[in-house]
């Protein structure tokens, strides 16, 4: 199955961002992708954190969700909608949510980001908990016979989440074949940690990992690292784009995963 990581440099207008996302999704479909993944905050990189609260939508209703559903249906494409702000229990905060739509335009999976980014170095400061309520449940879904695990940006630093995604509710091992990670990594942290962490999660789980990122300097002055990439189950980078808008594609191969898991049966050696 061909998959696509879509890289954006989103701005402060939801309408403009959706227009750019539509163009990238159309490119992905025209290149033969069956699953396309938008980056975190694809619909809005606001001037301030409260901007997310201003454009939040009720689950199941709103222009951003309508755009994702209708585009998936029109293109006959699986779309993982990066993240969008959904209404949650706190009126002053949002849920930072990935919604996955199938080619019929139906909601196939929803994941609310569990780990909220916090970072301070000099004048550079981020505190997602100021405007975001964390989710509580890992989410994986089936996509045309592939088991797909969902994570978002800062989740990448928590390998236990990826392990949890490869277990059934009864505790039985059910490995994911691919993990999707929409992100908006800062330039500061991304330069040092992005690729090595993505490759580590792929190697640990003997699975593909797709990172779809924001990549460039945004209207609000923030600079994101970009480097959207697709890594195979041996930790090899199959495709990457450093900065700017891009469609990054690669083809998932079942034989590659099977070969790696047979030659190095680490998943079967787990004791915890």
What this model shows, in words?
By secondary structure, the protein is of the alpha+beta class. It has one domain (2-269): Carbon-nitrogen hydrolase (Nitrilase/N-carbamoyl-D-aminoacid amidohydrolase, 4-Layer Sandwich). The chain contains six helices and 17 strands. It has helices at 14-30, 50-54, 63-75, 159-165, 187-205, 254-263, and strands at residues 2-7, 35-37, 78-80, 84-87, 94-101, 107-112, 118-121, 124-127, 140-143, 146-150, 178-183, 208-213, 215-217, 223-225, 228-231, 237-241, 246-251. Strands 1, 2, 3, 4, 5, 6 and 17 form a seven-stranded mixed sheet that branches. A six-stranded mixed sheet has the order 9-10-11-12-15-16, covered by helices on one side. Strands 7-8 form a two-stranded antiparallel sheet. Strand 4 and strand 5 form a beta hairpin. The longest helix is centred in the last third of the chain and has 19 residues, at 187-205.
Reading off the top of the CATH hierarchy, the class is best stated as Alpha Beta
Gross morphology: globular
Uncertain stretches of 5 or more adjacent residues: none
CATH superfamily: Carbon-nitrogen hydrolase
Q: Provide the residue-averaged pLDDT.
A: 96
Tell me the layout of helices and strands:
Elements: E1 2-7, H1 14-30, E2 35-37, H2 50-54, H3 63-75, E3 78-80, E4 84-87, E5 94-101, E6 107-112, E7 118-121, E8 124-127, E9 140-143, E10 146-150, H4 159-165, E11 178-183, H5 187-205, E12 208-213, E13 215-217, E14 223-225, E15 228-231, E16 237-241, E17 246-251, H6 254-263
Parallel strand pairs: 1-2, 2-3, 10-11, 11-12
Antiparallel strand pairs: 1-17, 3-5, 4-5, 5-6, 7-8, 9-10, 12-15, 13-14, 15-16
Helix pairs in contact: 1-3
